[in-house]
Amino acid sequence: MAPAGAVLYRNLRTFQVWGANTEVGKTVISTVLCNAARAKLKDRVQYIKPVSTGNIEDADSSHIRKFGIDRLAKHLDNTDEAFKSLCLHQYELPISPDRAAAVSNLHIPNDEALLSEIRQVLSERAELGGWAFIETAGGVHSPGPSGTSQADLYRPLRVPAVLIADSKLGGISQTIAAYESLKIRGYDVESVLLFEDDYYQNDHQLKTYFKQHGTPCKTLPKLHAPQSSKEADEELMLRYYEKHSQSPIIEEVLSHMKQRHDDRVKNLESMPSRAHNKIWYPFTQSTLLSPEKITAIDSASGDYFQTLEKKQGAESLIKSSFDGSGSWWTQGLGHGNPQLMLAAAYAAGRYGHVMFAEAVHEPALKLAETLLDYLSNPRLSRVFYSDNGSTGIEVAVKMALRAARIRYGWGPNDNLGVLGLSGSYHGDTMGAMDCSEPSTYNEKIEWYEGKGFWFSYPTVSCVDGRWTVAVPPALQDQFGSDKPFRSLADIMDLESREASREYEQYRVFITQTLKQLRVEGRRFGALIIEPIVLGAGGMIFVDPLFQRALVSVVRSSPELFADDAHFPNSANAWTGLPVIFDEVFTGLYRLGRSSAASLLQVHPDISVHAKLLTGGLLPLCATAASEDIFKAFESDDKSDALLHGHSYTAHAVGCSVAIESLEEMRTLDTTGAWDEFKSRWAGPAQESEQEAEPVWSVWSKDFVEWTSNRERVEGVWALGSVLSITLKDLQGAGGYKSTAAKDVQAALFKGDSADWNIHSRILGNVIYFMAGQTTSTATVQRVQDVLRKVLV
Amino acid sequence: MAPAGAVLYRNLRTFQVWGANTEVGKTVISTVLCNAARAKLKDRVQYIKPVSTGNIEDADSSHIRKFGIDRLAKHLDNTDEAFKSLCLHQYELPISPDRAAAVSNLHIPNDEALLSEIRQVLSERAELGGWAFIETAGGVHSPGPSGTSQADLYRPLRVPAVLIADSKLGGISQTIAAYESLKIRGYDVESVLLFEDDYYQNDHQLKTYFKQHGTPCKTLPKLHAPQSSKEADEELMLRYYEKHSQSPIIEEVLSHMKQRHDDRVKNLESMPSRAHNKIWYPFTQSTLLSPEKITAIDSASGDYFQTLEKKQGAESLIKSSFDGSGSWWTQGLGHGNPQLMLAAAYAAGRYGHVMFAEAVHEPALKLAETLLDYLSNPRLSRVFYSDNGSTGIEVAVKMALRAARIRYGWGPNDNLGVLGLSGSYHGDTMGAMDCSEPSTYNEKIEWYEGKGFWFSYPTVSCVDGRWTVAVPPALQDQFGSDKPFRSLADIMDLESREASREYEQYRVFITQTLKQLRVEGRRFGALIIEPIVLGAGGMIFVDPLFQRALVSVVRSSPELFADDAHFPNSANAWTGLPVIFDEVFTGLYRLGRSSAASLLQVHPDISVHAKLLTGGLLPLCATAASEDIFKAFESDDKSDALLHGHSYTAHAVGCSVAIESLEEMRTLDTTGAWDEFKSRWAGPAQESEQEAEPVWSVWSKDFVEWTSNRERVEGVWALGSVLSITLKDLQGAGGYKSTAAKDVQAALFKGDSADWNIHSRILGNVIYFMAGQTTSTATVQRVQDVLRKVLV
């Protein structure tokens, strides 16, 4: 089944009718709207009641049939298709849909299935055009058949809303609260309608309120009082419809709704060319861009964008696009996640943003405590906030260099570099750029000046069905040739591998290199690495044993860095050089563990976290450091402090969302949400080990191994939610400039289904995919199935 | 009147009772809670109904009196103060409070007055301790007497909420929607209560829902059906209370509420010391910090923080603190602004965050279009997004240097510097730091390396009652001595001043300096200035004529920068050097105009905007640039692109909030919201000019001039929402390290009222204050009154 994404058809003006309360007149007003669309505008109309409870004869769809086309036929062009009324699921008991469904013997559709049914009806009507009205049941949060609140249930469709306000006592409050519940889920409320009531006059206040919110609010005349006989009632009802279906007010309402629909289409369709004129895109060569290449995103939910399809006629204008890059590696808990949204809104309502220097608020403090607990690193005791990974790295580097300089008594003008890994990348601000060796990303930047030394290293991938530690040619004299392993788990079994010859080779090589650098007079203030995987450098899976050896040598050999080298007393103090882990990409369950450091079983002195920190909603970064590093900035002089701090440092909204994200991810971890994925990766080798945390991925082991055997594939690996495929670069350009992955990317974007495709990003000849932490097995399967077709 | 801030008393457990709907039993359940607190816990109880409509005998406060202490006295310790019931405003007609108040002949309290009355009652009860229950009227959004929704009206008090859920048909939806409306305003909902109902059983679903949200939801037995006589009704009611006021469920509810109250106090009180242990503060020397110096912020609303007061006994634990630094210069539309909150939540619900490279979403596009329109600068045509002012400056510098290098044919390794102003500061990332001359902020940073030349210049302030352009001693040979002016408006009248001798002096000085730099072989790629005011450098108001002269010379003299200097054809292309305006602090109405550039009447080629961009809620930065600059990055080579882009580039939440902010500020501007402030600054000089936009401030001219005459004051200026006072530095340390302003800051923080104080930040011997764009004249007056006392 295709993902149930948003619906938008050029000629089918689709609206969803919501009630501010139960019994506010949704069905009567829906009928008026349907009739007016037929009678005044001579348009075709489709009414849909997805779920109805109670006697079928009293059901809303029957009401519409009775007072719609059948009775008013004399005014209308009565063809089969002109006016259809449909109820998808009818349960007999007049109670809430979930309870009525539960006690019935009937099929209970799950949320995705129900949405697909609605999409199917709309898709069939799209050719005919006109209007479609989808009437909800009860209030905005009344449960659907599965028990999910309707406001959440229908959200993926993101059909524009008509809100029927409550004209009775208390109705102002009910209406505004219902409006807010829709609005905060990203619904567009296009029209508010209610019955007149001379006594309560709710419309006065509501008209003012909705005018401020840019939505017209209109009244319909009050309904008659209930009559003694059903016939009398129906007679009056009929007269009501005859009279008001032709009213200029309703015509105005429909005209506004039509305008809004047309505006939405026009706006979406014009966005790429407007963006092409006004936006300066990040990491984009504008000469290679054209409006046709710009993806217009209408909205997003779960793992999917809802993107514009350039279509004429009756085809859907919106397609679901799997967010294959995790929106630049940020996504974890799904787009439009209502819990993250509520956390953000709560903090915005409680604080806005408040000053952080010498002040404290609960979200910043609680996040610091939660994060330190998460990292389970006895060295880390302090959290410094900034706004993104790049600024967080600048903070980390400022911390480390100062600590090293103070410890070793170097002067402020001694040039300090960093030690790192070839192919590393730590961000786009100048200080972060300077932490990496020259590359396509930085070498043309006027102020870039790489400050450091970067090691080459063996890498990990699955090649021709075999997990391999590949040794680059230049290192083969030192380390020998590529080494095959039985499994990824074996490669990650660092305890066993530390006893191997290769570990000693790594140590010797690193030590000799550092000695040589010392001889050359080079001076270093930090070791900075992306643990396990170098992201922007091309999704390079570094042999973890090499990273472990590097940290081990640096920590155990202070004499390689300074004359007055010494080991401090404290167990948690840094030795050799401060070790910075850039976990911006790799941390917080991206690789399946709460920290990437735990995969290496190394405790860094400074650890930088962003991206997944907020579950994929907002920029925020936390740089955690040891007390030892912190104390290097202590002095009687105010200006010895770490003089860094952005205006929105520790902004309450970001911190609140981050707390919610960390808690949700921890819950997923501890409640076994990933057990199905994990079980596919657990091999006999694993089970023999005591309590070993499995090495696992949401991408299946079989699929990874199958991919590694494709002719065009050079190597592949998967870990946590990341899948990385290196394609053979037949043009030989290599690296970031290669276009080898472009064909695959284009084929995935084209897709083979009218309903969805895959949006992905490439890094030269590497194409990668990133699931969220809440992505279902079905979605992963769906993506893998397409990949199997494209890579075959 | 003191600001009506949050209430929290150690021994008075105060809760506000809200209804998910009207007629859900708020009063009955409030009575049960009051009775149980008396009967089971033997505590004192205060019931408050701030506003009641309908017959006084039927009023909720009468109900409580009848079924509370009076009738149940036999169980209770019936003293005068043990159980009080109070209605503050009673209007006779049983309709919504705003309408009932409007038709009455009674006093209608405004929102602030009503809150003050409630605070007064609570403050008087604080000594006695026990419980206070404040019962709202109708639903959460039912209007108060002024017409403001209660959810907004009572928000400044931020009393923890008890939500009475709706047990009737549709009640699940009503309850969740009401809960969300409270939650998104920053209320803590501590308990949900409802009547049992065997038929609808709303409690089943609601208990599950609220469990997920961490709030206990409990039921009370159903009420009896209405009886034929009032006496029979009352008899049954009495029995209900007798029975259920002692129920273990209610005891459990109260016990939970007590725990939550105690936890809140404990949490707040422990925050400073926990923060002192775990937080690494920005720009803070930790040896000078102690828990006592850390301000614990409970919440914030409008212009005020709600901060912890370290008090024992019955005194209020929370004080309103005027956010004098505008939370590091970010605030514009008030803390907890519901419109910004809704904009944030809507975008979070609609998108989360979505990929921006080669994609477009409505908020990013609309913000780009809105901002470009705002800036009214024909040169600017492109917007590049990043996360904060510092990253936005790095982007601007990358843009400018590349454009200059391409135009002049310089190689990538030619060292380019920037031209700037002495005392400038552009941010904390390394590239932004390198744009400023060495200073306290950067000179100890290991990788800092100032790249450029920075001019000295005359400055503006009001000294001894006279507006003055002060010339620093080193420049007096060139420019003569300090020059007095009749008014600030005269100083800002650049058209007239361009005809003066001083303008020519400025131009000559600048030209000669640049010639000399050329002779020295220096090479520059950009002119970067903070227009009008240098913020972090110490709120330095630069003579705008000097800044104009600087831009003018740079633009008209390309031969000062390169041999192959030429003027491009396009009118909007840069000449000389690309001119960058860092408007991060000074732009977007901070200085009273939509852009600071408009005060200088200069059109920069690149303009950087952050802080107020989101009205003070979230980090976001936009760097706007000219098409000419944009085209410098065009090539067939992908790697010639501007290789910069943070993961959350153009995040939808930030962009949506920014659009809302820009629109709100524009509305304030165009609807004359600042006319009262402006009128105080309009002098006869102004009126003689045609259509001249006034130079104005929220801080009154009289007050500024009065301040300038204080003995301890060296100079003062006000512009837009900023007031800056330079104090005489009697110790002579000067600059950032000075402590001259510390006394004033401490006196303001101590305050002279139990209800509020002023939180401010200082820059050396400069103390400054920043109002928001929505700060009222009354608030400004209140702050000025205190300043007059402290500065006297």
TrEMBL record, chains A, B:
It is found in: Mitochondrion. Transmembrane segments: none annotated. Keywords: Aminotransferase, Transferase. Its main location: mitochondrion. The keyword Methyltransferase does not apply. PANTHER family: ADENOSYLMETHIONINE-8-AMINO-7-OXONONANOATE AMINOTRANSFERASE (PTHR42684). HAMAP family: BioD (MF_00336). This is Adenosylmethionine-8-amino-7-oxononanoate aminotransferase.
